[in-house]
Write a structure and sequence with these properties.
Blueprint: H1 2-11, E1 20-26, H2 37-40, E2 47-53, E3 59-61, E4 70-76, E5 82-88, E6 96-101, E7 108-109, H3 117-124, E8 136-141, E9 147-151, E10 170-174, E11 182-183, E12 191-196, E13 202-206
Antiparallel strand pairs: 1-2, 2-3, 4-5, 5-6, 6-7, 8-9, 9-10, 10-11, 12-13
C-alpha cells in the first residue's frame, strides 16, 4: 500500500515530471523577529543542500565540503544545471553567496566580506549580538545570467533597533561571477526573498511598519 501511495503521489503526478527534488536541510532558525533570522536566529549549525531522488528516495548532499554550516535559500538556474545559495560557516562570519552544479561539482564562493570589514566593525561599534558586518543572502538567477540577492551592505538599522545593529537588507545585483555588485533599492526597512516573474521583473517582499 505504501508503494502504491508513493507511485500515485510521485511517479503518476504530472506536476512532478522530473527525477530529483532540491531542498535544504537545516535546523529551524531561532530568531525573535521576522527579519533577524541571520542575526540571532543562527544558534544551531548543521545541514546541507540536498537532492532527493524521486525514483528510490535516496538523498544526496550536494555540498559536503560545507558540512557544519547553515544553508539558507537557494535557486536553480534557468538551464537547470547550477544552484546558487547562501551559506554561513560559523558565528562571527556572515552569510555569503555560493554556487554549485546540480551534480555537486564546481562549488565556488561568489561573495566575500568587504576588504575593510574589520575597520567598519570598529567604526560603527558593531553590536556584540551581530559580531560581524555584512550578510549576503536569498540569491536568485536573473534571465541575463546575473544574480539578484539581498544584503546588509547598505549599513542601515531597522528604525526601532540600535543604529549599530545592521538589520536592514536591500536588493542587490551582481554578475554571475560575483563582480560588479550594485544596489537595486534604497529602502529603510528589510527586503527579502527576490524571485523573477514570467516577464522578467523582480518580485520580492518588504517588511513595513
Amino acid at each position: 500500500i505504501r508503494q502504491l501511495r508513493r507511485e500515485a503521489l510521485v511517479r503518476k503526478n504530472p506536476l512532478l515530471n522530473f527525477d530529483d527534488l532540491l531542498f535544504v536541510k537545516r535546523y529551524t532558525y531561532q530568531s525573535n523577529h521576522y527579519y533577524t533570522d541571520y542575526i540571532n536566529g543562527c544558534k544551531h549549525f548543521g545541514g546541507n543542500l540536498c537532492a532527493l531522488s524521486l525514483s528510490d528516495g535516496k538523498v544526496t548532499e550536494l555540498a559536503p565540503k560545507l558540512n557544519g554550516g547553515i544553508f539558507g535559500r537557494f535557486d536553480l538556474s534557468f538551464d537547470g544545471r547550477r544552484i546558487v545559495f547562501d551559506y554561513k560557516r560559523r558565528i562571527g562570519e556572515g552569510f555569503r553567496i555560493w554556487e554549485t552544479g546540480i551534480d555537486g561539482q564546481g562549488l565556488r564562493q561568489l561573495t566575500f566580506p568587504p576588504k575593510d570589514e574589520q575597520e567598519r566593525i570598529k567604526k560603527y561599534k558593531i553590536n556584540q549580538m551581530y559580531q560581524h558586518h555584512t550578510d549576503d543572502m536569498h540569491p536568485c538567477y536573473l534571465p541575463d545570467g546575473a544574480i539578484c540577492f539581498i544584503s546588509t551592505r547598505c549599513e542601515r538599522g531597522i528604525l526601532c533597533d540600535a543604529p549599530d545593529l545592521f538589520s536592514t537588507t536591500t536588493l542587490y545585483r551582481m554578475d554571475k561571477d560575483g563582480r560588479n555588485m550594485e544596489v537595486l533599492s534604497n529602502s529603510p526597512v528589510s527586503e527579502s526573498s527576490p524571485s523573477v516573474t514570467n516577464d522578467g521583473r523582480i518580485l520580492y517582499t518588504r517588511w513595513e511598519y
